[in-house]
Amino acid sequence: MPMSDAEPQPADPDPALRREHLGAFIRLRRERLQPQSAGLAGTARRRTPGLRREELAQLCGVSATWITWLEQGRPVAASAAMLARLAQALQLSVAERAYLFELAGRLDHAAPGAQPRPVDAVLRSVRHMTCPAYVLDRRWDVVASNPQAAELFLDWGAAGASPPPNLLRFLFLDPAARKLIHDWDARSHRLVAEFRADCGLQIDSPPLRAQVEALAAESADFARCWGRHDVLAREGGERRFRHPRRGELTFEQITLRPALHGDIKLVMLLPQP
Question: Which residue positions does the secretion signal occupy (predicted)?
Fold first, then answer.
């Protein structure tokens, strides 16, 4: 499935929806941060979980009203410097900070520069790999894969099919995936958080919105994971499978973003002894 330099970009999402996502994300992160970890004195009885809005406002040097309006999705202007203080106060990870800035429509000057555009050779490269390998686009459609990956993922379909196989749909809608993937509960939660990070500012573009709504309607597990607004960077590490034909399998996952394209990911699973 070739991609050219003239590939159209998704339209900018509805600003009101973006503010709604931003407010929910900030509120959930505030509620998960304990006062002690933020350097504040804890009290024995608290009516709300995590930090109060007043406490977060104190850490950021703004008014509690400003934090309230931000969480309510009101059209509040937030500077890059203010977002940086908010990210620090909420102790956001690199992926979470990038997500915060993207939803707020601000450039994070502390972040690395944007990636340039792609070469089609990345999509063809998986055919020459002997380990399971595949390429995901922004929707996590499998736009390229080799036979080893198709076998591992129970013949999820060949890339180029209409529609192409999709990693999230396989994970949540194919009953065999729950038996195949070791510790399915933890992996499914993490993958949804990684997918949200990948969506970024385009979270409410029509293709992604339609995909999320369809998955949430078809899978209560996906809807629950998505509603947590968790954001995680995609990482490598050990991946274990219980394959019905090949038994217990262990791989080391390596995920790469091609230097010429930030919207696709090359995933390789290196066999482990």
Answer: none
Count of domains for the chain: 2
pTM: 0.65
Is 1 within a domain? no
- Which H or E element spans position 112? none
Tell me, yes or no, whether 10 lies in a domain. Answer: no
Q: Is residue 109 part of a domain?
A: no
The single-letter DSSP state of residue 90 is: T
| Whether the Cβ atoms of residue 19 and residue 75 lie closer than 8 Å to each other | yes
Map residue 54 onto helix, strand or coil. helix
Per-residue pLDDT of the chain (273 residues; tens, 9 = 90+): 333 333 334 445 578 888 899 999 999 999 988 877 766 665 556 667 788 898 888 888 888 999 999 999 998 888 888 898 899 888 888 889 989 998 888 888 777 554 434 446 777 788 889 999 999 888 898 888 899 999 999 988 444 555 778 999 999 999 999 999 999 999 999 999 999 988 876 777 778 888 999 999 999 999 999 999 999 887 778 999 999 999 999 999 998 887 656 678 889 999 987
- Give 3-state DSSP helix, strand, coil % of the chain, rounded to 5: 45, 15, 40
In this structure, the number of other CB atoms found within 10 A of the CB of residue 130 comes to 9
As given in the structure block, the two tokens for residue 246 are: 């090949």
Instruction: Return the CATH number at 164.
Output: 3.30.450.180
| Cα–Cα distance for residue pair 239/4, rounded to 1 Å | 33
Q: CA torsion 156→160→162→164, rounded to 10°?
A: 40
Domain coverage including residue 75: 15-104
Give yes or no: residues 227 and 156 share one domain.
yes
Nearest-10 Cα torsion for 84, 85, 87, 88: 120
* CATH code of the domain containing 63: 1.10.260.40
